[in-house]
Fold each of these.
Amino acid sequence: MGFSELFILLFTLHSLLAMASRQPTVPKSYLFSEYIGAEDNNVKFSDVPINPNVEFHYILAFAIDYTNSSSPSPTNGEFKIFWDTHNLSPSQVSSIKSQHTNVKVALSLGGDTVRGKTCNFTILSVDSWVSNAVSSLTKIIQEYNLDGIDIDYEHFVSDQDTFVECIGKLITTLKNNGVITFASIAPFDDDDEVKRNYMALWNSYAHVIDYVNFQFYAYDKGTTVSQFMRYFQTQIDNYAGGNILASITTEGSGGLSPKNGFFKACNRLKSQGKLGGIFVWSADNSKASGFKYEKKSQAILATSHKNFSV
């Protein structure tokens, strides 16, 4: 091959790669996730319908680095369990995973409140917090045979760089140690510290974050389909390359509701190749209505991914 032919070949390959890089990112999976255990409503894993043709993640809510007392205080990374351990025990985790091979179970860190108080991300130092967090979470994850973690801190005492370094190092260490296989983050659009902290975390540690469980229900109640579609595209841009999940709350507190077109929007996103999955907050609130929105969500995902296998 002469020099000119080689040059043409290399130029062509470079052009093709450049074109490919500009194509829309296809979601890595069609995932259904459900937060469970935060409201102490006696909900069990086995209560929730599980479609065998989706990847199904339960997310235990919550593990929190606060004392488990009537007046809780921060513990600098020493995580304790705050979910309903009576109904969501290690043996029950093992049971649901053995019955359904498409099920994985994670735990979520933080949350909005702890025993009615604001749950703040608070540390003494990066090294001590990360060390304590890795140790305490490894113990919980191994005891419960869990698969991943979700980051849902919503209030911050520390600065942005500290949050990024702590959470980024925590996820990286747990993955490198083989303790977890996936990690997600659960931001929402508040135009303030939540947005800044999570986007900074994404910019530095996107390579270790598998899913973005974006809280679209934090937008105003009465959100329309067209507004939701714009919000979703904004988050695709903010978390570039990420696997963005659509979300709904069965509390009815905000966002795009089923009666206003949530599933219509999900089908539209699916047809555009943008729907990375759906998550629901939460099983505790859905129990009374028979999990009808969980069934509908999984049906949409299953038709997109009939040949799914784990």
Note: The chain has nine helices and 13 strands.
Amino acid sequence: MNKPKPLISAILNLNLHPKPLFSNPIHLMALTQTRITHSDPPQNDAEDDVLCSNPEQTQEEQPSSHSLDETPSFFGSTGKYLTGVSRFERAWAHWTKLGRPKLIVAPMVDNSELPFRMLCRKYGAEAAYTPMLHSRIFNENPKYRSEEFTTCKEDRPLFVQFCANDPDILLEAARRVESHCDYVDINLGCPQRIARRGYYGAFLMDNLPLVKSLVEKLALNLNVPVSCKIRVFPKLEDTLKYAKMLEDAGCSLLAVHGRTRDEKDGKKFRADWNAIKAVKNELRIPVLANGNIRHMDDVRNCLEETGADGVLSAETLLENPALFAGFRTSNWVVDNEKDSIDGKLDQADLVVQYLKLCEKYPVPWRMIRSHVHKMLGDWFRVQPQVREELNAQSRLTFEFLYGLVDQLRELGVRVPLHQKDDASATGNLAEVIGI
């Protein structure tokens, strides 16, 4: 067995080693008293909307439903933490109770689902967000609830994120999940056209009284704290006023994406860490930084420069779910960087692990298809005919996907993930993260 390199040794001391996985997923079926019967995927394009599998569960295996009265409250009676300085103390006490996680999976529509979260947790993620859930549809559609939100015992700490523009609808949705998470999060940062059409996400930045009412509604009525994820305004002073308003409304944790809502292309626009630092200095609640996190050097630099209490990564994790365990893709390894070594892990290995998790925790096939494309993108560029074979497959099966990985390997394709063999970097990371 190879001796761990210095950086990996530090990461292992951070409890970032692979963790045992809990095998019984909790669906919101238990809350809605609905179940989806087992069936083979249909033989058409609609197949991508059904679960990858749906093993039957016995009555004993079904998670019990939780009433609001049974929900444990770390904050005490509903809304009490809003009064006085104690609300800041309670916000920090809750964050401390969770272990003050610093390495966090960002919310990604259709991409931060349970199997992917569990894969990232295996490789060092200390907390994770669900995909953005649409609050109105979540309330109205039992199938949407049971397919789009699943969790398990080991899936903690967990942020459940909703988009909304109606406080009452948001509260109804939040109450359905509060016993299964550590924060209910409000998406105030989605910059996509669908958010503009639906009037949610970053487009609520034009209606701050509505935003305030969303936060207050949850903060006054939930037994778990409310968090928010935002983008910055073009002017720093507007961003600071916005962040302070959210804190005053009852937000207990704020994640700041350091780009404006018009800066959609993360490769073209670098996130503004100075703006995140200014928000951190302004507020009295935990603040997380989002943007420009491609490898562990970025984690260290971001924590140092912003003073944030943790970092979120999104797009890079899709390509490399092992990012938080010190692995990086070849495009982040400088050609003459002598301290980078083959990490004895590649994206095909991660795809196989992800597929096994999907067999354990069923999700819609469209999510699986997306992850396979993201993780094997570098490999497909070498053997594009294999990618075309995947694209032509209207009905996915696990047998086909495992075979796809075998086919790439038989063609001699291997793009290794790298580790940075640098003792000084290990020391700096340990100092920043606090080991």
Note: Residues 1-24, 29-47, 53-81, 423-430 have pLDDT under 50 and may be disordered.
Amino acid sequence: MASSTIISRKMIKLLSPTPPSLRCHKLSFMDHINFHLHSPYAFFYPKIPQNYSSKISQILENSLSKVLSFYYPLAGKINNNYTYVDCNDTGAEYLNVRIDCPMSQIINDPYNDAVGVVFPQDLPWSSSLNRSPLVVQLSHFDCGGIAVSACTSHTIFDGHSLSKFINDWASTARNMDFKPSPQFNASTFFPLPSETNLSSTLPTTHPSKRHVSRMYNFSSSNLTRLKDMVTKESHVKNPTRIEVASALVHKCGVTMSMEKSGMFKPTLMTHAMNLRPPIPLNTMGNAVCIILTTTVTEDEVKLPNFVAKLQKDKQQLRDKLKDMKKDMMPLYTLELGKNAMNIIEKDTHDVYVCSGMTNTGLHKIDFGWGEPVRVTLATSNKNNFIFMDEQSGDGLNVLITLTKDYMLKFQSNKELLEFASPVVESTK
């Protein structure tokens, strides 16, 4: 297994200090009830132009310093009860690390777990309370390739905010005159109650070492085949890429569960839905509501039926939120989270968690030396499906995390392999 050696560790300070008027960044109700963990993303670049190789770290540090002046809460400290960020300009943690193997050993490993080496040790998915809200690691491989990983506090950022920050950082690295325009005003839309004694919607959990991840690719042509199959066999209209892909991986999960237990168990699948709009697109923070889709019969698991049910649940949520006052949205989100937790605690359903990081530009992040060949996250909790744009084309990559014994069954599913292929073939 590859090991890493820290070359240097420093705090990247803001190029321009945060004005006193912005020193206290109030967290929103959505921020307060969210996961208080770091979200770990990594970008792999195997071929670095010679004119960049000696100055990559300096480019990243300088551009990070500037972009932090606009994303100043990432350089502060979250207070103990998650109600505000003290924007004290402490800075973001930045590590230079040497990895004692070629990059190919990491990205060609059939299991995504190998990417853990490009993140600070023990940091992915850990609490962001007593650590910098942003921790960056620049990893240098023996072959000359690099990986840039960023762990951002989920208390401060949802997926939309994270993608905006990474894109703005890359734009600044390419052009130091670039000026980002984030707005840290989520608390005006989702204010905290005057007396806040609420705990997080969901418990802070850490991925078990018994969980493993694999990435699968749905090509554009296979997604079209899936869509055609769903629409021909039902009244479903214009299904999205994620709707048909998540329906398939859900069905494969049910098949796997039935093979193991010998019986059907009801399911709950959650999807995250961005609330921008109606919230402005440049509003940073957490602005996400969850869609809960359940099945209680095998017939509901069939792809056309599940996609129809998912579309209905999405539309019902949109209709519910359309006329809802914005300050009521967090309470409703909290209620949905509690409903999901009640189902989880009763163990009456198999639970699958879906999230999408598509249409974010993360698959094309260019700091000046080209686009990445792989974008991924650290291993998450079990039964987790994270959808991302593939590196080229209109297809999808999905990072699937399961327990080890479930993964052995899942990766052999014939229906899965008919429409999706492992990004790296297993040789084990």
Note: The domain at 4-189 is CATH 3.30.559.10 (Chloramphenicol Acetyltransferase).
Amino acid sequence: MLSVSLFFSSSSSSHLLFLSKTLTKRTCFSSLATMSINLNAHAFAGNPIRSKTLTAHDPLSPSSAFQSLKTHLLQNPETTSLPPPPKSPLFKVLPFRKGRPLASSSITGNNDDDVPSWHLGWISLPDCKYFLGKCGMDLTEDSLVYLGSKIEDDVVYWAVDVSGESRLVPELGSKQFCFVELRTLMVATDWSDSIAMGELAIAGHARALLEWHNLSRFCGHCGEKTIPKEAGRRKQCSNESCKKRIYPRVDPVVIMLVIDRENDRALLGRQSRFVPRMWSCLAGFIEPGESLEEAVRRETYEEAGIEVGEVVYHSSQPWPVGPSSIPCQLMVGFFAFAKSLEINVDKEELEDAQWHSREDVRKALAVAEYKKAQKTTAAKVDQMCKGVEKGQSLSADFNVESGELAPMFFPGPFAIAHHLISTWANQDVPTDGVKAGSKQPSSSILNL
């Protein structure tokens, strides 16, 4: 089965900032000894404009906002003096091009060492209509996808795919906007900045929806075209005799740190596309008719030949930055305890897999300069938005203080793999922890 990578590749940065949420029966993990991360949500989770359950008559609800949107789009300020619809909210639009959200960058402060921060490139509905009109493209209600709202600001947020219009790039670039890979924005995000983390979650949600729309243009049952419904939150077959409902797709994936309890070691793997010295957890898609625990055991045996017994749940988070054919993966993290120790690597899945001692893992975590990588990428995004893109290999940032290469390193603190590894390395994983599927009261949930 296909193995899933959540890490840096040699061509792009694909680390994910992950907030460690650990469920236990009696014990909640303490803060990590080598990290000083205090987050409220995982990367790509904690979306601040995620659609709430609003009544159909609420002006910010998908149905009401969509009707108001249609009225706005029909109006031409140059030829009509019609007032806007009553109780009409403010609309903001986030354009995407080939899966890349529109972004800008700014530096707050006057010091030379101030790090730039990126922002989503929200534009008003009239401006979006104007920019597209200049390029000969009409903005229609069916091209916009409802993302959510902020009740306190009376704002509704939308996303639109403008991949077919290349003339927008210089048009928006002249205003220091740039379409940036979501993976790059992910690495550039300051994980201690809750606002930046919220914008990353919004961008991830939007990309997943737009990629799903591109994949679901035709009905899988009868082959007829599909049409958007509920402000783009679902689709429906246009065939009157079919009318099949189609909902956004989520693909569940297990990712696990396999532990040799007797010898105090953890199993880490490498894929051929990893940058040198990069190691991480094993991972793979869940198959139909399979439980989470079964998927952990099967994937571990298929990839490394290791038999797994006990499986303990750690946490989960959405992953909308995979290939466009997989709009959004749901990563489900586990600790898995080995029953056998002899490694037999499937070379089609992994380049290598090895046991690593807790001491070696701790040393690697201590010397890797994760914050430096984040700042470097933030500076790169700033250069891109200013039209002066500079190439940068992020693997060069994972060095020891002397400037020498670190012997090995792992995904940064924006990745679920990092938190599985660092949690084990810095504290004991309880053997009586909650196993996947166990019922647990909400009071046992701890946000690290």
Note: The domain at 62-74+88-216 is CATH 3.90.79 (Nucleoside Triphosphate Pyrophosphohydrolase).
